[in-house]
Amino acid sequence: LLETLADQAAVAIERTILVADVEAARLAAETDRLRSALLSSLSHDLRTPLVSILGAASSLINYGDALEAKDRRDLAGTIQDEAERLNRFVQNLLDMTKLGSGALKPNADWADLNDVVRAAVDRSGKLLKGRQIKVDIDAGMPLLRLDSILMEQVFFNLLDNACKYSPPGSQVTIWARTSKDLALIEVCDQGAGIPEADRERVFDMFYRVEATDKQTAGTGLGLAICRGIVEAHDGTIKAEPGLHGAGTCIVIHLPLGAPPTLDSNETAGV
Ligand code: ADP
């Protein structure tokens, strides 16, 4: 009997080692994928705006005196836009690093979803290029327990995508209702949509849909950051087709906490 038990134990140990080996190989392959994706993303996403900045700066230095005021403003505008793009990219990388190391902890407080969404909409002004943003948040939406700064980043990233991947002049809608113990929030656009096969993977770091990859600049980090932040709030985030199967809806579920009371230490602003 002892021998049989020993044999069984040996087989079980071998199997465990095999599973561990397979898992280690999978992790190594994933690490390799992330490393090369990071390197190509870094070189492309840092170089492209830097080349534009250097070009515009050198035109200003060499020909600035001879240029019309409007052309000088255009060149200065290019420098500002591209520097902002660099800034967003570096901020995304920093957020990602913090999320990965668990250092990005939500500093949650009771917040009005309208304020958080409004702040993100205000920041996205430059991206709109004729697109309309419709905010439709149920008047009865209670205060939510969240980190306003991080959630503003989520809505900003989603609005950025909704604008980047939909035609100018189309409509982007931010819709929110409550259902039982959840806040349901959707950011929907009328763009090309995300193919079903990619809908889960777009939340992975550096993943970009092949068809849009060449046409639109991006890092593949925005949605990964959104997922990290939403999950840090015990929420969920997924991509769905928009109304009548057209466009994209990013659907977020956040837990509704117990409502704050006036004498509670957790009341907003205390
Ligand atoms: P980025 O936009 O910088 O590439 P994201 O992580 O924000 O990175 O998005 C990952 C990919 O998901 C994008 O490259 C794009 O292919 C796809 N995607 C995201 N949002 C949308 C959207 N609203 N409509 C269509 N495709 C989208």
TrEMBL record:
UniProt subcellular location: Membrane
Superkingdom of this protein's organism: Bacteria
Histidine kinase domain span: 41-258
Purpose of the protein: Member of the two-component regulatory system KdpD/KdpE involved in the regulation of the kdp operon. KdpD may function as a membrane-associated protein kinase that phosphorylates KdpE in response to environmental signals.
Designated name of the protein: histidine kinase
Naturally occurring in which organism (per UniProt): Telmatospirillum siberiense
Lineage, opening ranks: Bacteria, Pseudomonadati, Pseudomonadota, Alphaproteobacteria, Rhodospirillales
